[in-house]
Structures are given as structure tokens and as C-alpha cells.
Write a structure and sequence with these properties.
- The longest helix has 16 residues, at 123-138.
- The chain has one domain.
- Helix content is 15%, strand content 30%.
- It is globular and about 35 Å long.
- A hairpin with a 2-residue loop joins strand 3 and strand 4.
- The protein starts with a strand and ends with a helix.
- The protein is of the alpha+beta class.
- The model is unreliable at 99-118 and 129-139 (pLDDT under 50).
- It is built from 2 helices and 7 strands, in the order E-E-E-E-E-H-E-E-H.
Amino acid sequence: MQGSLDSVVDWYVSGWAWDPQQPSQFLCLDLIVNGKSVGVVQADRFRLDLLRAGIGDGFHAFRFRIPPGYRVQDCQVSVQERLSRIELQGSPANNIVATFDALSVPSARYQYYPSLKIDSNNINNVISDFVGLTIGHLE
């Protein structure tokens, strides 16, 4: 298993994970905040940099919102592969700075290109990424 917790911006955790021995499988990841599991996310979003780096078909990124009730700047955030409990590189993240933007949209280096592959497994990601990018360009 390979992967990285790349960023924690405001209440959003993003990164990537994949198993080179099973490149077509999407890994399930646990998001752990202050030692407590707060949710599960599947690494199934597209990132062009992953495709260019030979990380499968590029559909191995994730983005997860930390649930309400946490002061993000006081949090320790970890991401682990669900079955093996292996922590991603860059995890845990500490001393997070919150910008408290009303809307957090992916930065240019994490832009998604959902039109490359749309199916029933990733349609929700495609819609949320498109809406986020569109609103970000309007501001």
C-alpha cells in the first residue's frame, strides 16, 4: 500500500492511497481525529498528477470533511488504510491552521478532471468536484 495525507485545509483532509498489487481496487481509509475514528472515505477521486506519476489510472485520491464539533486547529488528524491499519505518509498531521473560508475548493494542484471517466461508482465525486470548481471560478 502506498499513499499520502497531503493536506488538511479548513475542515478538509485530502491525499491519495493505492495498492500497486491491486491497481484497479479503491482503498477504504479511516479518518482519525484526536485518536477517534470519525469516518471512512474511499480513495476513488481523480488527480492528474497521480496519473502522470503512474499511480494506476489516477483515480486514487480522496477528500474528506472533518465532522462538525472539532476545533480543527486543535486536532491531530490521521488517515489509515482500513484493513491493514497502515498510516499514510504525512500522517498524523498536527498544528493545522484554519483559514475559516466559507467555501473550501480544491487548489490548482489538486484539480480534478472528472470528464475523463464517469461511472456509477464515482458520479457523486464528479458532481461535487464540478460544483466546487465552478463556484471557485466565480468568486
